[in-house]
Specification:
single chain, 233 residues, alpha/beta, Pectate Lyase C-like, 4 helices, 15% helix, Probable septum site-determining protein MinC, cell division, Septum_form_inhib_MinC_C
């Protein structure tokens, strides 16, 4: 029997929650996280989370260990850290025995580059049945079109765009692929979602303006910020 029959390594892309930390006031951070978890316990249960430290200062690594253990105490399922700024930060993260998920960010303000002119064209994956609680549908290298209801507790994921012609109550993650992910969009005819995410930028239900709940909506990134618009079919 070949080795391939037992195990196989493959590079895949999965959605995860990103916790952006802007300062290391430990008691405040812990209080905010606990409040969110208390409001949405089912959403945060066992969801993988990455801590982004790119907004912290080069000296904040001195307080990292205490802050990290404080975050762990909230019950978040931390799978890695991204965005470290220098080697001192890197060493502090290594001492935490936590995976480092990216290279250090550049602080050279004179650096510039032209983005590659590339547009990914996705084919469509169509689902015409209800997506029930606990179900996960992933449209790899495709747009995902749901012509029915997405229940609370369900997850719909696509490398491309997501269209829901029905009520969206669960979680929707668009643009999880690498190519042109920030150009992806999410559309639904009745918005009651637990979570909306495009290319890692996300809103949970309480972030959605109340005036948009229960109505048709379009989500997209504008200057790397998740944005919502009303739309008519």
């Amino acid at each position: 029997m070949s080795n391939k029959s037992y195990v196989k390594f493959s590079v895949e892309h999965f959605s995860s929650l990103v916790l952006y930390v802007y300062n290391l006031k430990i008691k405040t951070i812990e209080k905010i996280i606990n409040k969110k978890i208390k409001q949405f316990p089912n959403f945060f249960k066992n969801i993988p989370c990455i801590i982004d430290v790119s907004n912290l200062t080069e000296h904040d690594y001195l307080y990292w260990q205490e802050a990290y253990h404080s975050i762990l105490n909230t019950g978040l399922y931390i799978i890695g850290v991204s965005g470290y700024i220098n080697n001192k930060w890197k060493l502090a993260l290594i001492k935490s025995n936590i995976p480092i998920l990216n290279k250090k960010r550049s602080i050279d303000k004179n650096f510039s580059s032209k983005p590659e002119k590339y547009k990914k064209i996705y084919s469509d994956f169509v689902v015409d049945k209800p997506v029930r609680s606990g179900q996960i549908i992933y449209a790899k290298n495709k747009n995902l079109i749901i012509i029915n209801t997405v229940s609370s507790g369900a997850e719909i994921i696509a490398d491309g765009n997501i269209h829901v012609y029905g009520t969206l109550r669960g979680k929707a993650f668009a643009g999880v692929g690498e190519a042109d992910s920030q150009k992806c969009q999410i559309f639904c005819t009745q918005l009651l979602a637990e979570c909306i995410s495009i290319a890692g930028k996300f809103w949970i239900n309480e972030d959605i303006p109340k005036s948009n709940l229960g109505k048709s909506a379009r989500f997209f990134l504008k200057k790397n910020i998740l944005t919502i618009q009303k739309f008519s079919l």
